[in-house]
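Quick log. Single chain, no ligands specified.
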Amino acid sequence: MSNEIPASVVAHLMQHDAFSQWLGIKIIEIKEGYSKIEMVLRQEMTNGFSVAHGGIIFSFADSALAFACNNRNNLSLALECNISFLKQVNVGDTLIAEATEIHNGKSTGVYSISITNQNQKQVALFKGTCFRTGKNLV
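-> predicted structure:
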């Protein structure tokens, strides 16, 4: 498969994903079963301690999962996800999420998503399992 299909699927997803747009996600790299994205943490994304709200980091990683597991044009939905928060994230930090495929099965896929900051320090580790519906997205 050329990189044309993964890129067009992710472009379609981004066009229709209002939350990823609100997060300010930028696509860095897309290839089959893989995605790399970035975003900058804004003030409205913080919690009562003035650091990144965990839900924001989870959502950012979840978007990387969606872009990686759907980019073969097989509609895939998250079944289970978990995250470990390793370092605090502050306003103005640039986050990079890199989703790597661990397993690509007919009905499921498993992905590891590493989230790093602008200093290449890992701030979170996310693992997601998806269910493949067999339906096309585009």
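Residues 96 and 120 are 9 Å apart (CA to CA).
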